[in-house]
Amino acid sequence: MLWFLMGERRCKNGVELTMIAIGLMSGTSLDGIDAAIIETDGDGVSAFGKKISVPYPEGFRETLRQLLGHNPTDLSNIQSVIEELTLRHADVVKELISSAGLTPDQVDVVGFHGQTLFHDPDNAITCQVGDGALLAKTIGIPVVNDFRSNDVLNGGEGAPLAPAYHVALARTLERPVAFLNIGGVANLTWVSPDGGAVAFDTGPGNALIDDWVKRHTGALMDEGGSLARSGQVDEAALALLLDHPYFQRPYPKSLDRDAFDVTPVIGLSIEDGAATLSAFTSAAVAEAARLLPAKPLKWLVCGGGRHNPATMAGLRKYLATPVEPVEVEGWDGDALEAQAFAYLAVRSLKGLALSYPQTTGARHPLTGGVRHDP
User: Do 276 and 179 meet the contact criterion of CB atoms below 8 Å apart?
Assistant: First the structure.
C-alpha cells in the first residue's frame, strides 16, 4: 500500500463519505506519543497519511511511570500531569498536521486514547487519563476520547479495542490470520475466513523486559534484543512465569501491565533475565494460540516488540507458523495502533460498534467514546 497525503474525499450527492482522522496513542511502554492520519468512512480505509512518533522527555516519562498500576480514584491530585500530557499530545497533533501539509479545518476528528494508568476489568475499572476538552480547545478540532469506559460499564474487558481496525485491514488477506500487537502488553486479533474475529491480551509485551533493563542498566529498553540474544533462557524460571492462572482463562480477557510477578528471574544475570523475559512474551503468545478456533495461516506483528529480534525469534520458535512484521503487507507497524484510534474515532462519531462480545466480552456490540468540540 502506498502512503500518501489524502486528496479530495469521496462524496455522494454532495455528502462526504469519508473523513480525515488523526489517531493518538501512548502505550504502557511509555515510549512517547504515536500519531497517524487515515482517511476512512468508519468501515474501510481509503488512504493512509503521514505518521510521527515523539518520545517523552525522560523526566515526564518517570512521572508517568510512578503513576502506573495505582488506581487513581481521585484524579484531582494529578491534574497538572494530565494537563501536561494533554498539551504534549496537542503539540504532536500540530506537528503532524504541519508535516502533512494540512490545516486544522481539513481534519474531521482526533482520536485521543490517553495514557492508561490502571486497568482492572475484573472490578470494572479502567483509567486512561487525558483531557479531551482541553485537547479539542487547543488544536481547534473535534476530539473523541474515553474509548474504553462504555465497554467496561457493559460487562466488557475494555480491551483490546484495535480488533475492529484489524478486521478492516484483513479484508485483502488470506484468512484465518492473526494480528499480534506487542506494546507494554501484547494482544492478538484472530480474523476468521468469513471476517469474524476473536481478540484478547496474550500476556506481557515489552513492559517486563523494559523494566528489567531499566532496573539493571538505566536504559529504556533492550535495544535490538542484544541483552536477550547474549543470554540463556532459564527454563525453570520460564515455567514458573507461565504457571499463572491467566493463561488458562478463556477469552475474551485482558490484563494490566503489572499483572505478572517477575520473582522467578530475580537473581539471574542481566542477560539471562532479559532472555527469559523475552521468551516469556513469546511463549505466552503460544499459550494464547492454543485457545484460537483454528491455526492462523500467518501472524502479522505490529508494535515496538517487532523490533526485538529475540522476541521475533521466540515467536517463530514457539508458534511454528509464519511470523512476519506487518510491513510485509505494506503497513507501518509503528503507526497501526494510532491509526486504529483514528478509525475508532470515526466509528464513534457515526455510532458504530467499537467492541464486540467476542473481542472484549461485552454483552452486545457497543459504540463508545466521548466527543469534545473545540
Answer: no
